[in-house]
Structure formats: structure tokens, C-alpha cells
Design a protein that fits this description.
The complex is a heterodimer of chains A (about 240) and B (about 110).
Chain A lengths: L6 E10 L2 E10 L6 H12 L18 E4 L2 E4 L5 H4 L4 E5 L6 E3 L2 E2 L2 H9 L22 H9 L7 H5 L1 H5 L6 H11 L7 H8 L13 H5 L6 H20 L1
Parallel strand pairs in A: 1-5
Antiparallel strand pairs in A: 1-2, 3-4, 3-5, 6-7
Helix pairs in contact in A: 3-7, 4-7, 7-8, 7-10, 8-10
Chain B lengths: L3 H30 L4 H8 L3 H30 L3 H28 L5
Helix pairs in contact in B: 1-3, 3-4
Classes of the chains: A alpha+beta (about 240), B mainly alpha (about 110).
Chain lengths: ~240, ~110
């Protein structure tokens, strides 16, 4: 793939309204390029009407996730050489989310579920109070740290088969964030959070298939976080009944 | 579609079922060693409060456990929801409980053999 004149075929999902189909494009087969580079090449050199989303290009913002050859990937950090199959590349919008146009999905349902899962901070102090003293070796701090590096890319959400079959399910990212807040001693909303993650769309719907773990680009373990939520909601149930 | 209460009910019923299943299989293997007949078995189980409680609690647990499990499958695979889902879950429960209760009645309560 080193020769600039060599090309490869990329199939890109084009959708506007209800009309959706894959279209093929010939792009340079460069030795060192990411999937996002390929999509950008198509938009800049072949068809400027192609819609897609990206921002930082360095794997921090979580904007550019797409389905690449059937698997959810952060495209800015996914090298074509790692995922190309028979010199072909298929790029589609993220699974489990409505498409706005082409490769750009509507992320509203994803983030609405973060709010529904109470994956939001409930402050317990004001700016006038002293800062909470949390040591790095505190077990709760360690548990929070393990879940904290989420970039909201929705790769796990697209990888999750439960989300696909259960539209009410909050999904791995929202529940993972809830778990990091359960371990935040500064947070004052644990009762309402545990009630939220124990509701119909909550953590108990997870079948522990671990698609989220398999595809999380930051190698987080949302299944472990969800198991933590199951444990805490169970404990809270027995606490309440005492 | 599971919430905390259905999840706990399913786990707790599994917890009840596990030793009962092991007990059932163990006794079954033990009982056939000497070539017990149906009448000999029924003579031991009928009128026995212990066997009534043993199989009675199993039937209750399995009815709840199975109904919740099939509820999840029917929701996720076949899109059943709302009242249809409720009706389906309760029907499965009633069916399992009815069949199980009939068997428990026959084996532990009814007199005069099958």
C-alpha cells in the first residue's frame, strides 16, 4: 500500500431522509492513514456533500465514532491497515442511533439517557466549604478512576446488543458514568441515582455480553461498572427494607 | 425489561431452585437404585408435609423465575410491551404454577395413587 498511485475502494453509507445506501469511492491506499483520513479525503476531493462529524482528531473528543467494516470504532485513531479487509473498507453511521445525514448520527437519545441514569453530579458542598480530602489510594477513588476516562464517543452504545433490542436501556456509557459518581463521596444524589439505575431502563437489563468492553477505545470496562451498580442497588434494597 | 425488583425476584428464586434441583436429582438417583416402583414412591410422598414443601416451593420459584425470564425474551426479541407484556408474563406464571401445582397435589396430597 506504499505506492501513492495505488487505490482502494471505500463504501460509505449515504443517507438523506429515508433514502439510504452504500456508495463506493476510490481513494488513495496510503500506508499510513486513518479511517477518518479516508472519509475526509472523500469529502474534500470527491463529494463535498458527504456529512460526518469530527473535532479533535487525536482521540479525545469522542466525535468521530462510526461503524467500520461492521464494528464501532473511533475513526481518528483507527488505522485503515488494521481494519481493511480485501482492500475494502465499509464505513457506516454508528449503530443504535438515528441518522441525521450520511455518517452523522443524532446523539440526543444517547445523552438523554445519561440524564435519565442520573449520570450527573449532585454537589453536596458550596464553594465556601473546604475541599473534600480524597487520597489516591482510597478504594472508592480507585473504582471511580477505573471508569472515569470515558470520552462519550458512543462506541459502547453502538456495540451493545441490549441497546439494540431494548430501546429503553440506558446503555453502557451512561451507567459507567453513574458508577463513577456512586464512588464520588462529594456527591449528594446517591438515593435518586440508585433509584434511576434500578428502574426499567437501568443496569439490571445488562446481559454481561461485554460488547462494550470489547470495543471501548479507552479500554474501560463498563460491564464491571454495571456489575457494581447491580451490587449497590441490591445493597440499597436491603438497607431500605431494614 | 428488568428493574431492580424483577431482577431480585429472579435471582432469589434461582437461589431457591438450585438446592431443590440438586435434592431432586440426588433423591431420584438414590431412589431408583433399589428398583422402587411408582406406588412405593407415592406411598412415601403422599401425605408428607416435607415433600409438599419441597416441591411446592420449587413450583412457586420456577413459576416466578420462568415468567420473568420469558418476559425479558419476549420484550427483547419479539417487541412485546405494555399490557401485552404484562398479560404474557402473568399467563406464563399462571400456566407454570397451574401445571406445577397439579403435579405437587398429585404426588404429595392426593390419595389412592395416580
Amino acid at each position: 500500500m506504499a505506492d501513492e498511485t495505488q487505490t482502494m475502494t471505500v463504501s460509505i453509507w449515504r443517507e438523506d431522509g429515508d433514502d439510504g445506501r452504500f456508495e463506493k469511492y476510490e481513494v488513495p491506499a496510503r500506508e499510513n492513514q486513518t479511517v477518518l483520513d479516508v472519509v475526509a479525503y472523500v469529502q474534500q476531493h470527491i463529494d463535498p456533500t458527504l456529512s460526518y462529524r469530527f473535532a479533535c482528531r487525536v482521540g479525545m473528543c469522542g466525535s468521530c465514532a462510526m461503524m467500520v467494516n461492521g464494528s464501532p470504532r473511533w475513526t481518528c485513531r483507527t488505522h485503515v491497515s488494521k481494519v481493511v479487509a480485501d482492500d475494502c473498507l465499509e464505513v457506516a453511521p454508528l449503530r443504535n442511533l438515528p441518522v441525521i445525514k450520511d455518517l452523522a448520527t443524532d446523539m440526543d437519545p444517547f445523552f438523554e439517557k445519561w440524564v435519565a441514569a442520573e449520570a450527573v453530579f449532585h454537589p453536596s458542598k458550596t464553594r465556601h466549604d473546604p475541599m473534600a480530602a480524597i487520597t489516591p489510594d482510597d478504594p472508592m477513588r480507585i473504582a471511580a478512576s477505573e471508569a472515569i476516562e470515558c470520552i462519550n464517543c458512543a462506541v459502547c452504545y453502538a456495540a451493545c446488543d441490549v441497546v439494540e433490542s431494548n430501546p429503553d436501556y440506558f446503555g453502557p456509557a451512561a451507567l459507567n458514568r453513574s458508577w463513577s459518581l456512586v464512588n464520588d463521596i462529594r456527591d449528594d444524589g446517591q438515593d435518586v441515582r440508585l433509584a434511576a439505575v434500578g428502574s426499567n431502563g437501568g443496569c439490571h437489563n445488562c446481559h454481561s455480553q461485554q460488547g462494550c468492553v470489547q470495543y471501548c477505545p479507552n479500554e474501560l470496562n463498563p460491564t464491571l461498572s454495571i456489575a457494581g451498580l447491580k451490587r449497590e442497588t441490591t445493597k440499597a434494597l436491603f438497607r431500605r427494607s431494614r | 425489561m428488568l428493574n431492580l425488583h424483577l431482577y431480585m425476584l429472579q435471582r432469589l428464586t434461582a437461589l431457591i431452585m438450585a438446592p431443590l434441583v440438586i435434592g431432586h436429582i440426588a433423591v431420584m438417583i438414590y431412589a431408583v437404585q433399589g428398583g422402587l416402583t411408582v406406588d412405593e414412591i407415592l406411598a412415601r410422598t403422599q401425605g408428607s408435609v416435607a415433600w409438599f414443601l419441597f416441591y411446592g416451593s420449587f413450583v412457586v420459584a420456577v413459576s416466578i423465575h420462568g415468567a420473568i425470564g420469558l418476559r425479558v425474551i419476549s420484550f427483547e426479541w419479539f417487541g412485546l410491551k405494555g399490557r401485552a407484556l404484562q398479560l404474557f408474563s402473568w399467563t406464563v406464571f399462571a400456566l407454570l404454577f397451574g401445571l406445577g401445582a397439579k403435579a405437587v397435589y398429585t404426588v404429595t396430597l392426593a390419595g389412592g395413587g395416580l
